[in-house]
Every structure is written in C-alpha cells, then in structure tokens.
Amino acid sequence: MQPRVVILDYGSGNLRSAQRAVERAGAVVEVTADPHAAMEADGLLVPGVGAFAACMAGLRSVHGHQVIGKRLAGGRPVLGICVGMQVLFDRGVEHGVETQGCGEWPGTVERLRAPVVPHMGWNTLDVPEGSRLFAGVGPEERFYFVHSYGVLDWELEAASAHIAAPLVTWSTHGRPFVAAVENGPLWATQFHPEKSGDAGAKVLANWVASL
C-alpha cells in the first residue's frame, strides 16, 4: 500500500511542484485545505513561501495550526518545508513586527545575518549522526535554499535522559542557521527538497518511507 499524503493548501507554496515530487517518492498525494483529509492522511506536508505573517494568517484561516497540533499529539507525521518549517516555531520577526507561530518548537525566526540576503542557491549541510531524513545522502550533497529569514539559535534540548533530543541539521550563510529538524513525528527542512535534484528526492523518499 502506498502511503497517503496531504499537502496542505492554505494559499502558500509551490503546491504542484511539491505534489509531483512526493508522488515520485512513492506516495498517493492530495492537495487540499480540508482539515478532515489532513487529519486522516498518513503524512501531512506543510509548504510555505513568502512572509511568515502571511503564511500564519493563511494557515489559521484553514485551521492548519490546529490540525498540525492534533496530528502531533497523536504521533502522526508532519513535514514542514521552507516557511512551512519556520511557522512551527514560537514566533517570527519581520521588519520589526512579531507574529506568533504554531509553537511546536521554542525559538524565533529572524533575518539572516549575512553580507548578502536573501540566501538563494545551493548549499551544503552539517547533518547529525543517526539522521533518518538524510539516510543515504552524501556529505557533499547540496540543497536549494531561497530565504531571507531563519532560525539562528536552537533552543529545545532533551526533556529528560529518557527522551532523545531532536536531531538538528545546520547550514551556514553568514552564520549557521537551522536547515532541518527531526523531532519524533515532526520533521522539517528550510531548503526546498522538491527543487534540490536527486538529493532532495532522496530526502522526500526517506520521509515517505517513514510513514
């Protein structure tokens, strides 16, 4: 049985490109804003491009933040991509305006500290040992980024000795920023796997295989 994936349509993201990429990774994909379908799918993909505040407004308009929270409470897989990753954090600050995020992880999305912004193009990653998301991906592989904001400081540590700390992957543009996270059923990437060639296809295949 192929896993069923819903790509949440809340008015943000390159939905058709993501749909084709996830279908190639082996899933049956539906693009919809329907909360019931999003709850029932084996995997939920949350895309996102543009401004943090606009994405959060769109997400709330379809009750996406509630769907994400309910899925995670039940251990149901969610994958966030680009701003779809950023909105999982506590807050985003753009042009001095602070917007509340979904609050699944502590932390702030802020402007990158680099001589050239946006960070646009291909970059390597610093992947932690034991990553399932990047299994089979070589250390020299590059992934496609296009963003002006990111998470510069990871604030969540292990809750106890019995609960593993999230696996955090980093990249560097000016200074290090969070490029991906694996935290139980919640995985996310700042880069666009659907635009990252064979390496990105492998990342999506790894997620689909985990469903």
UniProtKB/TrEMBL annotation:
Main location: cytoplasm
Enzyme Commission numbers on file: 4.3.2.10, 3.5.1.2
Domain of life: Bacteria
Recorded metabolic or biological pathway in which this protein acts: Amino-acid biosynthesis; L-histidine biosynthesis; L-histidine from 5-phospho-alpha-D-ribose 1-diphosphate: step 5/9
InterPro entries named among the record's database cross-references: Class_I_gatase-like, GATASE, Imidazole-glycPsynth_HisH
Domain Glutamine amidotransferase: 6-208
Record's subcellular location: Cytoplasm
Record field: catalytic activity: L-glutamine + H2O = L-glutamate + NH4(+); 5-[(5-phospho-1-deoxy-D-ribulos-1-ylimino)methylamino]-1-(5-phospho-beta-D-ribosyl)imidazole-4-carboxamide + L-glutamine = D-erythro-1-(imidazol-4-yl)glycerol 3-phosphate + 5-amino-1-(5-phospho-beta-D-ribosyl)imidazole-4-carboxamide + L-glutamate + H(+)
Matching Gene3D superfamilies: 3.40.50.880
Annotated keywords: Amino-acid biosynthesis, Cytoplasm, Glutamine amidotransferase, Histidine biosynthesis, Hydrolase, Lyase
Positions of the catalytic residues: 82, 192, 194
GO molecular function: lyase activity
Pfam families: GATase
CDD domains reported in the protein's UniProt record: GATase1_IGP_Synthase
Entries under PANTHER family matching the protein: IMIDAZOLE GLYCEROL PHOSPHATE SYNTHASE SUBUNIT HISH
Function: IGPS catalyzes the conversion of PRFAR and glutamine to IGP, AICAR and glutamate. The HisH subunit catalyzes the hydrolysis of glutamine to glutamate and ammonia as part of the synthesis of IGP and AICAR. The resulting ammonia molecule is channeled to the active site of HisF.
Subunit structure: Heterodimer of HisH and HisF.
Name this protein carries in UniProt: Imidazole glycerol phosphate synthase subunit HisH
Organism, as annotated: Nocardiopsis endophytica
Gene symbol of the encoding locus: hisH
